[in-house]
Write a structure and sequence with these properties.
The protein is α+β, with helices and mostly antiparallel strands and 258 residues long. It is built from 8 helices and 12 strands. Helix 4 crosses helix 5 and helix 5 packs parallel to helix 7.
Length: 258
């Protein structure tokens, strides 16, 4: 089923339809790649005006969007091509939320590294193949993994193909059962994300994650806290949407104050 999603991913995975900047295929080494990303960030990080999310996550736009940094102490964006195609923009209050969240994660998870996946276009609007992500208040977060009880990052560098990874109802990778979803870290990350969102005039309005994984999540210490806070997880998903949301969890936010 994920094959069809892969066909939708091809336009941004193989070409630069939204920008003429070089892709990772053109970058000669790690140093020049870093320079390219830094130059791009400085040129596109956004102005000092407040952001405005117009419409909904599924039918909206973004004014004065802010570009997420490509990386920080304990996080990075998952794909250079996606980043240079301006698919990592968010509302300014969400930018503050994400950066504050990862500062908290430095304390809660001193040895962990996290990955942010796709966000919104610079001005919002449709961003194929996603149905949402249109007003700067949606982010995909890569699902943390473990192997033999230790954080596992070998699959983090797959780029767009990471969306095609599959995990069963127990959180085991379909190709290697020793690679598993770290449910406790997922729950703890979401709990910190909600706390920092509340401090920045936001709250989580919806989490989309594979339906069969929710029982494992809510059985963890922080999963119980998420449930107690009544953070909404999608209850009904089409088969293809359900199958796609295991390697990552999609989070929609809503403004509680401007």
């Amino acid at each position: 089923m994920k094959f069809y999603f892969f066909l939708l991913l091809l336009p941004f995975a193989s070409c630069q339809s939204q920008t003429n900047l070089p892709t990772t295929k053109i970058v000669e080494n790690e140093s020049s790649q870093s320079d390219t990303i830094e130059t791009f960030y400085e040129a596109n990080k956004g102005n000092d005006l407040p952001s405005k999310s117009i419409g909904s996550v599924s039918n909206g736009s973004l004014l004065n969007g802010k570009l997420l940094p490509f990386s920080g102490t304990n996080f990075r964006y998952f794909d250079t091509t996606s980043y240079l195609n301006k698919r990592a923009f968010v509302h300014d209050q969400l930018l503050k939320t994400v950066l504050s969240c990862y500062k908290e994660c430095e304390i809660a998870f001193p040895s962990h590294s996290f990955c942010i996946m796709e966000c919104s276009n610079e001005k919002g609007g449709k961003i194929a193949p996603h149905h949402t992500h249109q007003n700067g208040l949606s982010i995909d977060f890569m699902t943390p993994l473990v192997k033999d009880g230790k954080p596992y990052y070998a699959l983090d560098s797959l780029g767009a193909e990471h969306y095609l990874l599959e995990f069963d109802a127990e959180g085991k990778n379909s190709d290697d059962k020793t690679i598993e979803i770290d449910f406790e870290t997922v729950a703890h990350h979401l709990w910190i994300l909600e706390q920092t969102a509340r401090k920045n005039g936001l709250k989580i309005s919806k989490v989309i994650w594979k339906l069969e994984l929710k029982d494992e999540l809510f059985a963890t210490e922080y999963g119980k806290k998420l449930k107690a806070q009544n953070i909404y997880f999608a209850q009904n998903l089409t088969p293809i949407i359900n199958s796609l949301h295991d390697d990552h969890y999609h989070v929609d936010f809503e403004l509680t104050r401007d």
